[in-house]
Design a protein that fits this description.
Elements (H helix, E strand, L loop, with lengths): L18 E4 L2 E4 L11 H17 L4 H13 L10 E3 L2 E6 L8 E6 L7 E5 H4 L7 E2 L3 E2 L5 E7 L6 E7 L10 E10 L5 E7 L6 E8 L8 E5 L6 E6 L5 E7 L4 E7 L8 E4 L7 E6 L2 E6 L8 E6 L9 E4 L5 E8 L3 E8 L2 E8 L5 E3 L7 E5 L9 E8 L5 E6 L5 E6 L12 E9 L5 E9 L10 E4 L17 H4 L4 E5 L9 H5 L7 H16 L8 E6 L1 H12 L6 E5 L5 H6 L10 H4 L5 H10 L12 E7 L8 H13 L6 E6 L12 H16 L5
Parallel strand pairs: 33-34, 33-35, 35-36, 36-37, 37-38
Antiparallel strand pairs: 1-2, 3-4, 4-5, 5-6, 7-9, 8-9, 9-10, 10-11, 11-12, 12-13, 13-14, 15-16, 16-17, 17-18, 19-20, 20-21, 21-22, 23-24, 24-25, 25-26, 27-28, 28-29, 29-30, 31-32, 32-34
Helix pairs in contact: 2-12, 6-7
Length: 689
């Protein structure tokens, strides 16, 4: 791909010195002024960054369009979800050719009955640059649907109710909700969650009565601890309304019989620091997934409906040091357990009568299996999903009685070029600097040579115990088919190897997350999969923090890095409790009002550790309305990098001026950003087709 002369100069941000003092330590932030989204100078600067990025990548524009069409061309446009049955109706979500948004439908009793369109998001989105439909909740009598809409991409949803018998959408609008709501069994009482206007913390549960104004809604719970978020739902058994309240390390639940919505909620088990639990109801008992009694990987316990305090909990599945208990699904005759052992997903089937206890067989080391949508308590069919780095996604129904497995849907890869036998995946183990073995999943097109010349894109996240499983992607084929090896590094901070894997990558052990990633990079270079000239790294959000830290620690290892919506100004953000979501993060990163956490955060915070040195080629992306990582973090970081870096490598900043943390809302719009990212990588590799 030939370079052309760039006529637009890189934006140089003005510097306004601001001193930030804490614990007798002074940090100078010359770009603090960028925090004001309403400041015209800020918007002008962001627009200038976009213009600069566009000019630098102008010679790739036709390639970006080709990549977009190529990726879009693999996706079936007229697609439908696998139907599921709930309370007498079959529900299907479908996409139609040429349309960006889903259509939600249902059919009464029989899958061949007349189709009823509940919501057509294409019509609802017409007047909006961004559109997202929140949780749909159907009343028990099937006559009403509560739903929520976000048209800003700040995850502040407006809640409304639709009469499904007449099609009328009630004019009442409840603003600033989480988007989810749940009906009591009387078909007229709706529980929902509101957010704090400034911090966006979900802190209040309200009760709304059908045909009444919002002003008459009753506050039933107020979470006053600003490190907790609250939510409300109904148990799968339909017997209880549950209010949950959780922080990173602590849980608390309240229950109310769904037949008596005007009653008082009862605390299930009072919150205790670092006691985590979640609850599911079956017959006259509750089943509890908990870390009680030092059950690091969690265990399953049981208690009666009437005696729910922890001293009454009895073991059903005891704690296991080598198996992480992730989730359960309760059916009338079976308990299904989602486990993880040695990094691999396992689905365990246990009959309530005690006669059966076995695992579904999976025969791969780089697969992902997960429980699907199983809303019907009385069903004998377990729905789960399966895919791998080389195998497209399947939705599978497994009959728990007959043990017959039926594939309900296989992901189609259009375009006529994909053959899974042309690709290979494997799992490797890199040795970290402290001797710990770190797993790596990778996929590539068959025929590569280990000569150090392969381009590698190494991806990771590494926070919140969130595990990036090895999954299939039609989009990724555009890199694999052009010679890239795609790598997922299962670093500490996730839960790939159990809860301890997470605990050893947070708070005062957070540095393990970063050094694990770097040690995986060094392993790939050492084993001749690639070299620093051909190694690329990518991560988003907390994974963007990872990107910012690794290029401060070892910039020489990477030719290019993509940091999406990166959390890079850790100390300043964590000290500002007015920024959305900050206080709930203390158990993940630490509270910098405590000096030991302040000092530790400052030691790795990307923004605080930018120095005059050579950095890799960089593409940074964000959204102006991002509620998770505020746009000004990457904006300030890019400005400081421009000021201090000593190389002539690319430093590009792309800001979506209409979207937030998740990017564009249209089904295919997000592919345009992927095309930009891939063109950036492929251009650095000299690939232009």
């Amino acid at each position: 791909m030939s370079e052309t002369t760039v006529t637009v100069n890189a934006p140089v941000a003005k510097k306004i010195k601001k001193s930030l003092e804490k614990h007798n330590d002074i940090r100078i932030d010359n770009y603090f002024w960028m925090n004001d989204r309403e400041d015209k100078n800020v918007i002008d600067h962001l627009n200038a960054e976009n213009s600069y990025t566009k000019s630098v990548l102008k010679h790739t524009e036709s390639f970006q369009k080709d990549l977009f069409e190529e990726m879009k061309g693999r996706i079936k446009e007229d697609d439908t979800s696998v139907p599921y049955k709930l309370n007498g109706y079959w529900y299907v979500t479908k996409f139609e050719k040429g349309k960006d948004y889903p259509i939600y439908t249902r059919r009464k009793e029989n899958i061949d009955a007349a189709e009823e369109i509940i919501f057509d998001c294409n019509e609802m989105a017409k007047e909006h640059a961004y559109f997202k439909l929140g949780g749909i909740s159907i009343s028990p009598d099937n006559k009403m649907a509560s739903f929520a809409v976000d048209t800003v991409s700040r995850r502040q949803y407006t809640l409304q109710i639709k009469d499904l018998t007449t099609g009328e959408i009630f004019s009442d609008k409840i603003e600033n909700t989480t988007g989810s709501s749940t009906w009591a069994n009387d078909n007229k009482t709706l529980f929902y969650t509101k957010k704090d206007e400034v911090t966006l913390r979900s802190d209040k549960i309200y009760k709304h009565k059908l045909y009444t104004e919002e002003e008459k809604d009753v506050l039933v719970f107020n979470e006053t601890d600003d490190t907790f978020n609250s939510f409300v739902y109904k148990t799968k058994s339909k017997k209880y309304i549950v209010i949950g309240s959780s922080s990173t390390l602590t849980s608390e639940y309240r229950i109310l019989n769904a037949d008596t919505p005007d009653g008082e909620f009862k605390i299930f088990q009072e919150r205790e620091r670092e006691l985590e639990y979640s609850i599911a109801h079956y017959k006259d008992s509750f089943y509890i997934i908990t870390n009680k009694d030092d059950a690091t990987n969690f265990k399953l316990q049981k208690t009666s409906e009437t005696n729910t305090e922890k001293e009454n909990w009895k073991d059903v599945l005891p704690h296991r040091i080598d198996v992480l208990l992730e989730d359960i699904e309760i059916f009338k005759d079976y308990l299904v357990v989602n486990e993880r052992e040695n990094g691999l997903n396992k689905i365990r089937i246990i009959s309530w009568n005690g006669e059966e206890d076995y695992h579904l067989p999976f025969d791969n080391e780089t697969y992902t299996a997960s429980l699907g949508n199983n809303p019907d308590f009385n069903s004998d069919e377990l729905r789960y999903g399966y895919n791998s780095l080389t195998t497209p996604s399947s939705i599978i129904d497994y009959n728990l009685k007959t043990k017959i497995k039926t594939t309900k849907k296989e992901q189609e890869v259009l375009g006529g070029k994909f053959n899974k036998d042309n690709y290979e995946s494997k799992r490797l183990w890199a040795t970290a600097r402290d001797g710990v073995k770190v797993p790596i999943s990778l996929v590539y097109k068959k025929g590569i040579e280990l000569n150090g010349k392969n381009p590698v894109l190494q991806y990771s996240y590494g926070s919140y115990g969130s595990t990036i499983d090895p999954y299939f992607s039609t989009i990724r084929l555009s890199l694999l088919d052009r010679g890239f090896i795609y790598v997922i590094a299962h670093i500490r901070g996730g839960e790939y190897l159990g809860r301890e894997w997470y605990e050893n990558g947070k708070l005062l052990t957070k540095m393990n997350t970063f050094t694990d990633f770097i040690d995986c990079s060094k392993f790939l270079i050492q084993e001749k999969y690639t070299s620093p000239e051909h190694l690329y790294a990518m991560g988003g959000s907390a994974g963007g923090l990872l990107m910012g830290t690794i290029i401060n620690l070892n910039p020489e290892l990477y030719n290019g890095v993509i940091a999406a919506v990166p959390f890079v100004d850790v100390v300043t953000t964590m000290l500002d409790d007015t920024i959305p979501l900050t206080t709930g993060e203390y158990d993940e990163w630490g509270n910098p009002n405590d000096k030991k956490y302040y000092d530790y955060m400052k030691s790795y915070s990307p923004y605080d550790n930018v120095t005059p040195e050579n950095y890799p080629n960089l593409l940074v992306t964000t959204g102006l309305h991002d509620s998770q990582v505020q746009y000004f973090e990457p904006a300030k970081w890019v400005a400081k990098l421009r000021e201090l870096k000593t190389d002539t490598n690319k430093l590009l900043f792309h800001i979506d001026m209409e979207a937030g943390h998740g990017g564009a809302s249209g089904r295919f719009e997000s592919l345009k950003e992927v095309a930009l990212e891939y063109a950036f990588l492929l251009d650095l590799e000299g690939v232009d087709c």
